[in-house]
Amino acid sequence: TQLLEQSPQFLSIQEGENLTVYCNSSSVFSSLQWYRQEPGEGPVLLVTVVTGGEVKKLKRLTFQFGDARKDSSLHITAAQPGDTGLYLCAGLNNNNDMRFGAGTRLTVKP
Amino acid sequence: KAGVTQTPRYLIKTRGQQVTLSCSPISGHRSVSWYQQTPGQGLQFLFEYFSETQRNKGNFPGRFSGRQFSNSRSEMNVSTLELGDSALYLCASSRQGSWVEQYFGPGTRLTVT
After folding, report:
1. Radius of gyration of the CA atoms of chain A, in A
2. Which of B6, B43, B102 to mutate to test the interface with A (most CBs of A within 10 A)?
3. Nearest of B99, B52, B18, B73 to residue A30 by alpha carbon
4. Contact, B78 vs B18, CB < 8 A?
5. Closest to B106 (Cβ–Cβ): which among A2, A31, A42?
6. Which residues contact B96 (CB under 8 A, 6 or more apart)?
7. Model confidence pLDDT, tens digit, residues A7-56
8. Dist CA A108 CA B21 (whole Å)
9. I need a labelling partner for A91 at 20 to 30 A (CA). Which of A4, A47, A48, B77 fits?
10. CB contact (8 A) between residue A42 and residue B107
């Protein structure tokens, strides 16, 4: 059972388009992380958010943690082929358990 | 500095066999966590070792075990392999065992036939 629901599951867009992917849960998390995983490699940490309502920016990527700390979004502006990959969110609950979502597989076509 | 390394990268075993996977963390990192990644279940936490002690454990059967050595290198063992154990096994290291910043290795792709 996935405690973290990610949507959409698959996303295919053209270079230059904007996109948003979502990570939702009924549980409250003390912190939430986003990772990107490319084929044949392990996930790479992009960001950690810990405060409800927090917004972090990493170049063209904007991450937001929901006010209630149950959901998060990742927005990419002007997507590039190098953004292609599997985007995973992971939440840490108050019992120090980390749960991962199933991921959003993003393909950016040149 | 060198990243997390895992060996072997690919492995094919038959049902009933056992397998041992190895993970070398980033130098200076004392925590090693193991994860199983499958298309159906996604990424699931197996266990975490810190200074040779298992500190956290996920919801996996006792066939899955691990250990950590004094140099922080870790091994994971799966006994009596089942077809459903086919997966990408990832390890991640962090300095203090904090979830805030962990670095993943490239994984070991295990296929059970």
Report:
1. 13
2. B43
3. B99
4. yes
5. A42
6. B30, B31
7. 999 999 999 999 999 999 998 999 999 999 998 899 999 999 999 999 99
8. 34
9. B77
10. yes
Which 8-state DSSP code applies to residue B80?
Answer: S
Query: Does the pLDDT of residue B27 top 90, yes or no?
Result: yes
Q: Kindly identify which residue of chain B lies nearest to residue A41, measuring between CA atoms.
A: B106
Contact B43 A88 (CB under 8 A): yes
pLDDT in tens, B74-111: 999 999 999 999 999 999 999 877 676 889 999 999 99
CA-CA distance, A14 to A10, in Å (whole number)? 14
pLDDT score of A37? 96
Q: How close is the nearest chain B Cα to the Cα of A30, in Å?
A: 11
From the list A42, A45, A96, which residue is nearest B90 (CB)?
A: A42
Cα–Cα distance, B76 to B80 (Å, whole number):
14
